[in-house]
Amino acid sequence: MDDQLSKDVNSLRQVLDNDLFIAQPRMPKQPLLVAMCGLPGTGKSHFAAKLTEQVPFLILETDRLRKVLVEHPKYTTNEHRRVFSSCYQLIEEYLLHGYSVLFDATNLNEEFRTYLYNISASTGAPLALVHVTAPQDTVRRRLKQRKAEKHANTYSDAGWLIYTRLAPVEEPVRRDHYAVDTSKSIAPVLEQVIDWARSGGQSGEKPEAGA
């Protein structure tokens, strides 16, 4: 681990270790990994919050953690890799210590998702991918409202410009995953993921096959 990565990991660990006192996300038998996937404004964090109301997870939210490392984020490729590299190290670390982790991030392409596949394989933690979508007009309205109201319950600064910049690089999820359109009720898919988590990642309704 290089010096910058080590420093970043230590900075984020201090924040997340404080979260552990609240979340206490230890599963009785097997730590789990849930990874959100989707563009800004599609409703990933809302789904994640509803899930963690029912099942304990340590949440690694890149929008929040990015601001620990970068005071004024620019959402550049290098900044993105810096944040994600630190998160991958910590996801593996917390799983190995018996904590279930929810990774709330865009995870838009297979290059980045492959890191999560490998972490799941190396730690033995079952992985659930949750691909979140919403129609463009819905996303645009949400992002406009977020900017106007400066929601206190979100760490994201991503607006429509960032959405349009990221949309062309989004790739289909190639592994089995849960798919939810947040312009409709999230309850059916939420219940499926809750069932999966409560079973220790061993059961629950089968997710959609990868593309």
Short structural summary:
With 211 residues, this protein is an alpha/beta fold. The protein has helices at 3-23, 44-54, 62-69, 77-96, 110-123, 136-149, 160-166, 187-198, and strands at residues 33-37, 58-61, 101-104, 127-133, 178-181.
Describe the structure.
The protein is of the alpha/beta class and 211 residues long. It has one domain (3-198): 3-Layer(aba) Sandwich (Rossmann fold), CATH 3.40.50.300. The protein contains 8 helices and 5 strands. The protein has a 5-stranded parallel sheet with strand order 2-3-1-4-5, with helices on both faces. The longest helix has 21 residues, at 3-23. The model has no long low-confidence stretch (mean pLDDT 91).
Instruction: Determine the CATH superfamily.
Output: P-loop containing nucleotide triphosphate hydrolases
Q: Radius of gyration, Cα only, in angstroms? A: 16 Å
Q: Name the structural class.
A: alpha/beta
CATH architecture: 3-Layer(aba) Sandwich
In the CATH hierarchy, what is the class?
Answer: Alpha Beta
The run of helices and strands is HEHEHHEHEHHEH
Estimate percent helicity. 40-55%
Query: How does the major sheet shape up?
Result: 5 strands, parallel
- Categorize the overall geometry: globular
Fill in the CATH topology. Rossmann fold
**Residue-averaged pLDDT, rounded?**
91
Spatial strand arrangement across the major sheet: 2-3-1-4-5
Helix count equals: 8
The total tally of domains equals 1
